[in-house]
Design a protein that fits this description.
With 469 residues, the protein is an alpha/beta fold. The protein has helices spanning 14-17, 30-35, 53-67, 78-81, 92-107, 123-126, 135-151, 164-172, 187-209, 211-214, 235-247, 249-257, 264-276, 327-334, 350-363, 387-405, 451-468; strands at residues 7-11, 71-75, 111-117, 157-162, 217-223, 226-229, 302-305, 309-312, 369-373, 411-417, 436-438, 447-449. It is globular and about 55 Å long. This is Cytosolic beta-glucosidase.
Length: 469
């Protein structure tokens, strides 16, 4: 049995669904710029129109109602609201759009979970240094306060920043996400640090100025795989697994939930490596200033994005971390009955989610947890009757139920990724995560529910009925 007030949701992000990239005064974001450069995205695709949710919001709302969702997670486009990234100029058309979305949800008894930043930094701020610049954190705080003031009367669940790890590493080290920088060993740590500073500033702003009246909750969405040693009894693999957890999940969860600083494993490794590299008197991993708002305690719940599990084997090297075996190894070793999904990084391991939830309970003092993203992709030939994905949702939600009932994890909600097939970043439209298929060859962007969407709706209906008894 799930708690009576359990949040049954699905999620989207502004750049991935809205389109209207130049509509009604919106400014460009780093993803607009990135996608308009050759060779960045599968098939030279972009989110200029995407699902056209900017014009077809009512169609999205129909999909939400068809599923019977109690909650819907969306993100706000910073550049649609504040075209140059600052509050000097507010785009009222953008404000009107999000007012329409929020009012539409509430009219249908659907509660919004709103993400302030889901990868799409205004290009104007990138031109000034982006997340590598310490000042971006202050500008984010101003943006956050604007959103709290403008929309907070209707929002009870806020996410400040989505997956800072992905933004830092894929955007500033690997160069495969916007802004497309490749500065290994330096930029990612700086970007991650400034995102944590930005999150903490925004949380404290909400806590000081808005919480009493608005009575909402604020967190940041942290992505993590579940990790296990490839050889359970091998000391080196166990140590490598713990190290990898510190450099991924721990990087952002440890400062917020445990100590106010980075994991000691991470700090000592980077400090030592920095000294060996001859860095001028300082570590490549910045330190938090006592003159700024404290990081520790700046989350009212744990927001978790989970997709896959991996086996870790010691050996080789990646920056300060130790290398991982391939995704296919994860699928075969952890759960041989499940295949690799269409995207190369996703091996389906539903029971890995339960194990990760247990780890979070034990490591982070049993926080309230919202699973803010979880999904299974489809590539290649379209399958509306996607039996495998239907089974995925049944099996995964069963594991969440076990985590609640048998393990005592305080899970408050589950958000499927995604409501719609959408622009999946570097994969373009080639990876389909939606509960609804979107026909991108159709000017009307017609939406058709998948079998997995119907299955998820059945699950929601079943548990909602049980909760009401």
């Amino acid at each position: 049995m799930f708690p009576r007030d359990f949040a049954w949701g699905a999620g989207t992000a502004a750049y991935q669904i809205e389109g209207g990239w130049q509509a009604d005064g919106k400014g460009p974001s780093i993803w607009d710029t990135f996608c308009h450069e050759k060779g960045r995205v599968f098939g030279e695709q972009n989110g200029d129109e995407a699902c056209n949710s900017y014009e077809l919001w009512e169609k999205d709302l129909e999909c939400i109602q068809q599923l019977g969702l109690t909650h819907y997670r969306l993100s706000l486009s910073w550049a649609r609201l504040l075209p140059d990234g600052t509050t000097r100029h507010v785009n009222q058309k953008g404000v009107q759009y999000y007012n329409k979305v929020l009012d539409g949800l509430l009219a249908c008894n659907v509660s919004p979970m709103v993400t302030l930043y889901h990868f799409d930094l205004p290009q104007a701020l990138q031109d000034q240094g982006g997340w590598k610049s310490a000042g971006t954190a202050t500008l984010f705080d101003s943006y956050a306060k604007f959103c709290f003031q403008t929309f907070g009367d209707r929002v009870k669940l806020w996410i400040t920043i989505n997956e800072p790890y992905v933004c830092a590493k894929l955007g500033h080290e690997d160069g495969i996400h916007a802004p497309g920088l490749k500065e290994p060993g330096v930029a990612a740590y700086l970007v991650g640090h400034n995102m944590l500073r930005a999150h903490a500033m925004a949380w404290h702003s909400y806590d000081c100025f808005y919480r009493t009246e608005q009575k909402g909750a604020v967190s940041l969405a942290i992505n993590s795989d579940w990790l296990e040693p490839l050889h359970a009894g091998r000391t080196e693999d166990i140590a490598a697994t713990e190290r990898q957890l510190a450099f991924t999940l721990g990087w952002f969860a440890w400062p917020v939930f445990v100590t106010g600083d980075y994991p000691e494993t991470m700090r000592s490794a980077i400090d030592a490596r920095s000294k060996k590299l001859g860095c001028s008197g300082s570590s490549r991993l910045p330190s938090f200033s006592k003159d700024e708002p404290a990081i520790l305690g700046t989350a009212d719940f744990f927001a978790l994005n989970y997709y896959t599990s991996r086996n870790i084997e010691a050996g080789g090297g990646y920056g300060e971390t130790l290398c991982m075996k391939s995704d296919r190894d994860a699928g075969e070793v952890l759960d041989p009955s499940w295949p690799i999904c269409g995207v190369s990084w996703l091996a389906v391991v539903p029971r890995g989610l339960r194990k990760l939830l247990m780890y979070i309970k034990d490591a982070f003092n049993n926080p309230a947890v919202y699973i803010t993203e979880n999904g299974f992709s489809q590539v290649g030939q379209l399958q509306i009757e996607d039996v495998q994905r239907s089974e995925f949702y049944k099996d995964t939600i069963l594991e969440v139920a076990k985590a609640i009932q048998e393990d005592g994890v305080n899970v408050r909600g589950y958000f499927a990724w995604s409501l719609l097939d959408n622009f999946e970043w570097a994969d373009g439209f080639s990876a389909r995560f939606g509960l609804f298929h979107v026909d991108f060859t159709d000017a009307r962007r017609s939406r058709t529910i998948y079998q997995s969407g119907r299955e998820y709706a059945k699950i929601i209906s079943k548990y909602k009925c049980a909760q009401s008894k």
